[in-house]
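Much of what follows relies on a compact textual record of a protein's fold. Here is one such record, which you should read through line by line:
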Amino acid sequence: MSNARPGTAGATRVCPHCKTTILESAAVCPSCKHHVRFEAADKNALDKSSALRVEGQIRHPPDGEPWEYSVVLTIRNDRGEEIARQVVGVGALRANEQRTFTLDVEMFAPKGAKVPPGSRH
């Protein structure tokens, strides 16, 4: 959970379905895709866009021992300090198996949210 007060940009809550920490302003949980607030559309978000999208594939060669993988997500602030680090998935690839990994960072400005004092715009 964040230190942001309820009603401010960045305030969080827990999804009642999957228990993931999500933004308080979210109408749909980005993890489990369940609705967490009844709204015709996500009218709390002004301009929702994908600020960053990276996708890549890993294919194991047709022969050889299995490969193991860990997907680790790290978020750093503007000073390079680590503010979050999480293992989001692990697994193994066997001969001729393939995995596709996608990172998508969505940005939006929630209507009516107060910007916390001292935050950067």
